[in-house]
GTPase HflX
Amino acid sequence: MSGYRIIIVKRVNAGSAETAEIRALAEAAGHEIVGELTQVRSEDSTYNLGQGAIKRLSERIEATAASGVIFDNELSPQQAHNIGEIVPDGIRLIDRYRLILDIFEEQAGTREAQLQVQLAELHYELPRVQEEIRLEKEVANERRSRGGLGEKENRRVTDIKERIQRIEEQLGSIDSADTKRREQHRDAGLSLVALAGYTNAGKSTLLRRLADDLAVDREQHTDLTETAGTEDRLFKTLGTTTRRATLDGRAVLVTDTIGFIRDLPGWLVQSFESTLGAVRHADLVCLVIDASDPLDDLHEKVETSRNHLADDVRILPVLNKVDVVDDRQTAREAVSQFELPPAAISAVEGTGVDDLCARIRDALPEQRARFVLSNSGETMRFVSWAYDHADVRAVDHDGETVSIELVGHPSIVRQANMRAKELTR
Ligand SMILES: Nc1nc2c(ncn2[C@@H]2O[C@H](COP(=O)(O)OP(=O)(O)OP(=O)(O)O)[C@@H](O)[C@H]2O)c(=O)[nH]1
Ligand SMILES: [Mg+2]
C-alpha cells in the first residue's frame, strides 16, 4: 500500500473530537499525517462538515501539499462526490471504513481472511454503486436522454450481489469444516478458549505466553509467528491462530482472534462471521483489556467488545499491561460488570499468568463422574482412554471390580458414560 500525505478530518456532534485512534489507524495503513482539522457541529448533508470547514480544508491541503484526506466519519457517496468537487484535483478521499478495509486488505494472510476482506469490500461497494446509479439516472433524466443506461448499470449491481453470494458460499464451507474440527477437538477432550478484545489489547502476546509449541492451525503451512504476530499497530491479527496449551494440567486449545474497534458497521462485522465462530463456540472467552488506557477509553473499549460478544458466552475479563499501570484497583472496578472477577496480568513480562491459567481452568465447564466396572481387559482399555481424555482422579482395584473417578469436559463425560454402558452390557 503506498502511503499518502494525509490530513485527518473529524466531525463530532458535540463534545470534543478525539483523533488518537483515527491517527493510529492512518499510521497502520502506512500514511503520513501532515495536518488535522476537527469540527464540532451537526452533520451537513452536502459536505458532512460545514461549508466554512470544507473551505479551510482546501486551504490546508494546499499549504501542506497533502495528497489525501481521511475522514473519521462515514461519507455518503453524495457527500464524497461534493467534497471531491471542491478540494484540489487528485486528492484521495478516504473515510473510516475505507481506511479499515485498506488495512484489512494489507493484513489478510490466510485464504479465509482474504475472502472475508473481499466480502466486506463488496458490502462497502454495493450501496455506493447503487447511489452512483441513482445520481447518473437523475442526470440522464434532466437531459431527457434515455436508453440503455438502467439495464447496463443494473448489471453492476447484480454482479456485486452474485460475487457476495459466491464468497458467502466459500466461507460457509470453511465454516462447516471449522465446526467439524471443533467437534473433533471436543471429542478429544480439549476445551476451547478464545482470546477476544479491542485491537492492540495484547491478545497475540498472551497467546504466545500460553501456548505449548504445538500448532493446530487449519492452515498448517502458514507461518504462525506471522499470523499471531504482535506489534503496536492496530489490526495486527486478522485471521485466527489456534495453539495447544496446557493450563494447570488441563489440555486446552487457545484461539487468538481479530480485534474489535469502535463504530464497526454491521456489514463489516458480519464479513468476519466465521472468524468470530471461534469466539461464539468457545467454552470460555478471555476478554483481554488494555488496563493502561485512560479510564474513559477503557470503559468504551470494554463496552464495544462486550457488544460484539454473544450474550451467552462465559467471559473472563483479563486486565493486561499491568506493568505500566499504577492504579490497578481502579482498573479492576472498571470491569466489575462481569460475572467473573478480572485477572490482572502482564503478557509481556509474564506476571499473573500462572494465576490466569488457574482461573481459566476453574472457569471451564467440567463434570465429575464415577464408574464401577468388572475387572477385564476391556475395562483396562477404558481406563487408558480415560487417562488420554480426562483428568483421572482415582482408580481402585477391588478384586472383581475396578472403580474409576474422573473429571473432564461435559462432552468427554458423556462419551465415558456411553463407553461404560457398552462394557456393562
Ligand atoms: N507494556 C505492555 N505492553 C504489552 C503487553 N502486552 C502486549 N503489549 C504490547 O501491546 C501491543 C499490542 O500487542 P498485540 O499482542 O499485538 O495485541 P493484539 O490484541 O493481538 O492486537 P491486534 O492483533 O491488533 O488486535 C504490542 O506492542 C505489545 O508489545 C503488556 O503486558 N505490557
Ligand atoms: Mg493480534
Summary: DSSP finds 15 helices and 13 strands in the chain. The first strand starts at residue 5 and ends at 12. The mean pLDDT is 88.
